[in-house]
Specification:
This protein has three helices and twelve strands, in the order E-E-E-H-E-H-E-E-E-E-H-E-E-E-E. The protein has helices at 41-44, 65-70, 122-126, and strands at residues 5-16, 22-30, 33-39, 48-54, 77-84, 96-97, 107-113, 118-120, 164-166, 170-182, 187-191, 201-206. By secondary structure, it is mainly beta.
Length: 208
């Protein structure tokens, strides 16, 4: 039973449909993942499956003793992630999941971290139009303007759109259609864009 899979974003390309339409797609190196733990309601209070992404380039010196004990007897994996599920009877520790669990036409939710933009001003971060370009305003072109009041309430309200850290946030792209799968190469093509930079970690779950 498919619970979820972990992968890495390769990049974007286009796929030509039979109608001749060119569709923008994202290529994802999805899995394979190994089931590292099965949680049950009786023992853990809820049903879930924990999986780890199989990667060969894992330095043993970077794996803690606790992780080595937890992963004993399994392949070299990284990036453990947990997926809630309603039924864990058909899955056991050591099982391997790949893109073969997904079919063309399935809808998936893809979660990743957006590209970090560092400290950004209000024009870039919130699309402010900036200050006036004339009437003696020579240095207010990208300034936010007034941010509060002098009397009531006499403070800056919470949630005010201001300059600050931009990007590097957890974002989910919902209901993306699976257009193609390649089990031999662990390749998944989904319609549209997904969060993050090329090489970024992604979590793929079935929508709904």
């Amino acid at each position: 039973m498919f619970a979820g899979i972990v992968g890495r974003k390769i990049g974007m390309t286009q796929l030509f449909q039979e109608s001749g339409e060119a569709v923008a797609v994202t290529a994802i190196q999805a899995g394979p993942v190994v089931v590292t733990q099965v949680k049950t309601r009786d023992r853990d209070g809820y049903d879930a499956v924990q999986v780890g992404l199989v990667e060969s380039k894992v330095k043993q010196s970077r794996i803690t003793s606790a992780e080595k004990g937890h992963l004993k007897g399994l392949e070299t994996v990284r990036h453990l992630r947990e997926f809630r599920t309603d039924d864990t009877s058909s899955i056991k520790r050591g099982d391997k999941l790949d893109v073969g669990c997904l079919a063309v036409g399935d809808l998936v939710n893809v979660t990743g971290f957006s590209k970090g933009r560092g400290f950004a001003g209000v024009v870039k971060r919130h699309h402010f139009s900036g200050g006036p370009k004339t009437h003696g305003q020579s240095d207010r072109h990208r300034a936010p303007g007034s941010i509060g009041a002098a009397t009531f309430p006499g403070r800056v309200l919470k949630g005010k759109k201001m300059a600050g850290h931009m990007g590097d946030r957890k974002i989910t792209a919902p209901n993306l259609e699976v257009l193609q799968t390649d089990v031999e190469r662990n390749l998944l093509l989904v319609k549209g864009a997904v969060p993050g930079a090329n090489g970024g970690l992604l979590i793929i779950e079935k929508a709904g």
